[in-house]
Design brief:
This is LANO_0F15060g1_1. Belongs to the UPF0057 (PMP3) family. InterPro entries: PMP3. With 117 residues, this protein is mainly alpha-helical. The chain has five helices and two strands. Strands 1-2 form a two-stranded antiparallel sheet. A hairpin with a 2-residue loop joins strand 1 and strand 2. The longest helix is centred in the N-terminal third of the chain and has 18 residues.
Length: 117
Amino acid sequence: MGLGERKIAREKEKKLEEKEGGGGVQECSGKREKYKKGWIGSRGWGRNVEQCRTNKQKLRMALTLTDFFKLVGAVIIPPLGVFMERGCTCDLLINILLTCLGYIPGIVHAVYIILKY
């Protein structure tokens, strides 16, 4: 991507952000990061929930009913739970390998993937 293409891409991005009514660049943990709508904090000054968080500030999502079914599937057939969570990815291949090496490592990996994502 050349310099001219980057400049055009930045201009398009700025126009899109102006249309959406938010966006820009903010300092977060010493890095410049883009943000969109979704501010938290008083008077709009705060960190964006999605794009601007440090390792200590990671947000955890609560378990849902679908996660329960994925966990049950992971206990019965570990690759099934991983497939339901991540689809046909490298995680599925790793889980199949672990399940072939031992049933318990496959279950542990499947539960880890389901709880992580």
